[in-house]
Design goal:
Length: about 280
């Protein structure tokens, strides 16, 4: 399979992943810029492998649950949710808001765990499959603020700082604005996003390290988010304090992730070694 074919296949999968309802062949092909015939060939292969299903009545296409299953399997293999969920749950109880954790992957952040602490009134409960827009989220700015400025700005621009996208009314659109926000995040030790990713919502976030030493690498970010009327400026410092305590807890137990992964891999290495001998 050529690189172009792989790219087209992934484009179809990503397009289907973003839709709640099945798509017809023409609409799907048009979305990814393919002729109907080429899209049909790829979809036929994906159906044969169990990645795509076709509605018998409408003949429209949708992703199967195979992708979700593999995603959860990968998270289990990384031993991420188990070691942080208790910390997130306690943070959610303390703040009574929606808490999430993202990990650094290359030059991006990816959601991996969440906990809902709101028990009454408005509840903020976003989709975990959403992309983390680095310049428009507290998590993104919390991570970028730990990087050298030139590197942070380069990553943000590469991830679409200048590209129009659906966002809140206060979404940053210039390098100068982002530089100013990152300076503020560094000086106060936490990042905020006020109606930047979504209208009517706000969030506070901090980064956490891969162990509890001061110079350890940044492993990810944690945040508290909710309706703007509750996540107001008067609460930012208190929420940041709760987040920093949670970040310290996560940094202290994060090395367990590596040990758990090593323990999971050990039986496979032993089998391979025995076969070789």
């Amino acid at each position: 399979m050529t690189v172009a074919a792989v790219d087209r296949c992934l484009s179809l999968i990503e397009t289907l992943a973003g839709e709640a309802e099945p798509l017809d062949l023409s609409g799907l092909a048009g979305r990814v810029g393919l002729p109907n015939s080429a899209a049909h060939r790829i979809l036929t292969t994906l159906m044969a492998r169990g990645w795509v299903i076709q509605d018998p009545a409408s003949q429209n296409y949708a992703l199967s649950l195979r992708l979700s299953t593999l995603a959860f399997r990968n998270l289990d293999a990384r031993a991420v949710p188990d070691i942080v969920q208790d910390v997130l749950d306690r943070l959610a109880v303390r703040t009574r808001e929606y808490c999430r954790l993202a990990i650094v992957e290359g030059e991006d952040l990816v959601w991996v765990a969440r906990a809902q602490g709101a028990v009454a009134g408005l509840r903020y409960d976003p989709d975990m499959g959403q992309e983390i827009v680095l310049h428009a989220t507290a998590n993104g700015k919390a991570w970028l603020s730990t990087l050298p400025e030139n590197e942070a700005l380069r990553i943000a621009c590469a991830r679409g700082l200048d590209a129009p996208r659906a966002a809140g009314p206060n979404c940053l659109t210039s390098v100068d604005d982002l530089r100013r926000h990152l300076d503020i995040s560094r000086s106060q030790g936490f990042a905020t996003a006020i109606e930047e990713a979504e209208e009517g919502t706000a969030a506070v976030a901090v980064a956490f390290r891969c162990d509890d030493t001061p110079d350890a690498e940044i492993a990810g970010t944690i945040s508290v988010a909710g309706p703007l009327l509750r996540i107001n400026a008067d609460r930012h410092a208190a929420l940041a304090g709760d987040l920093k305590r949670a970040a310290d807890e996560i940094a202290a137990i994060w090395p367990l992730r590596a040990r758990q992964r090593g323990a999971q891999m050990a039986p496979h290495r032993a089998v391979a070694g025995g076969a070789a001998s």
